[in-house]
Amino acid sequence: MTGRRKIGFVEGERILFPENRLSQQRKISYLNLFLILLFLFLFTWSAKATRFNPAAFTDPANLTGIGRFVSGLWPIEHSPEFLKNTGILLVETIEISVVGTVLAVVFAIPLTLGATRLRGEEFSRSSRGTLYWLGRWSVYYGSRFILNLCRGIPELLWALIFVVAVGLGPFPGVLALAAHSTGVLGKLYAEILESVDQRLVETGRATGASELAILLFVKIPASLPVLLSYTLFRWECNMRAATVLGFVGAGGIGTQLTISMQLFAYDEVSTLVLAILGLIFLVDIVGQVIRTRILDHSVRCNSDLLS
Fold first, then answer.
1. Structurally, how many domains does the chain consist of?
2. What Å distances lie between residue 21 and 28, 29, 73, 258, CA to CA?
3. In this structure, what DSSP letter does residue 4 have?
4. Which long-range contacts (CB under 8 A, 24 or more apart) does 71-80 make?
5. 1-38: b (≥16 Cβ within 10 Å) or e
6. Where are the alpha helices (DSSP H) in the chain?
7. In sequence order, what are the beta bridge partners of 9?
8. 21 in a domain, yes or no?
9. Residue 132: what pLDDT?
10. Over the stretch 217-245, which tens digit does the pLDDT of each residue have?
């Protein structure tokens, strides 16, 4: 008497029989249900802790204050002197974002080289346990720590620190954007370089190329369009951040916006907000056009450079 043969499903290198597959699906369903309930609990608890109350918008006193503020926004301030000053501050805001982004790229490049994890069997086999291997990982974790420190402190806090250090004006704004963006760009650059197709890297190592040659002729050409795209996107983010650094005295159009708010000059606030929105929309359009051109003209890795 022969037993009945079970029919299984191949999943990877395992064979799952129908009852085992059903049991695994139940476990996944229970896990998903638990995660959903956990999320709902955290949201409810957080909303209560933050006193989240949409009904506050319908409170008569709040509606009166909102109406007073909105009515003060019109007509906007359009005197030639104020418009000229607004234009000067917009140019200063652009200058802060450009210089801050360029400095961030300069500082991020060496940190990226240290924070990029060297992967692959050939590298691990040839260097594991050596003094170079120990030093390389020490540099890796040290660079990652610096990047996390720069990225973990927001721009406004950096601006406050540099205002105390070097005084008021656009210079602390430049330093604040450079410090924070160094951490952001350094991490992005490292992640992008690590995600390069490992087959290209191993092919380069098989030819006897050094790690520097692999970096220059494999990793960077293969990821250059993405690197440039993220750098440009970071400049757009810095442009937005530069508009609010003036709240703490770090230059830009935010300085005048703070003064106008404190003087309850809502007509000036309206002009400044419209100018900021126009600048951001313009930067978004320009950035999108440039990123599209960069990605359309991608640079491909030329393996002949390694031979």
1. 1
2. 11, 12, 63, 62
3. P
4. 72/264, 72/266, 72/267, 73/266, 73/267, 73/269, 73/270, 74/267, 74/270, 75/267, 76/267, 76/270, 76/271, 76/274, 77/265, 77/267, 77/268, 77/270, 77/271, 78/271
5. eeeeeeeeeeeeeeeeeeeeeeeeeeeeeeeeeeeeee
6. 18-49, 60-72, 80-115, 121-127, 131-152, 155-166, 170-194, 198-206, 211-214, 220-242, 253-262, 266-296
7. 16
8. no
9. 67
10. 777 777 788 888 889 889 988 988 888 88
6 is a domain residue: no
* Closest C-alpha to 182, from 136, 236, 221, 234: 234
Quote the percentage of the chain above a pLDDT of 90: 23
Which residues is 15 bridged to in the sheet? 10
Q: Which two tokens stand for residue 249?
A: 């005295």
Owning domain of residue 208: 82-306
> Is residue 18 assigned to a domain?
no
- Give me 205's structure tokens: 């190592």
Mean pLDDT of 124-148: 76
| Spatial separation of the C-alpha atoms in residues 76 and 266, rounded to whole Å | 8
CA distance 174 to 239: 11
User: Residue 140: which of 113, 180, 104 has the closest Cα?
Assistant: 113
Has residue 5 been placed in a domain?
A: no
The whole-angstrom separation of Cα 122 and Cα 118 is 10
Contact (Cβ atoms closer than 8 angstroms) between residue 243 and residue 57: no
Q: What is the model's pTM?
A: 0.72
CATH number of residue 218's parent domain = 1.10.3720.10
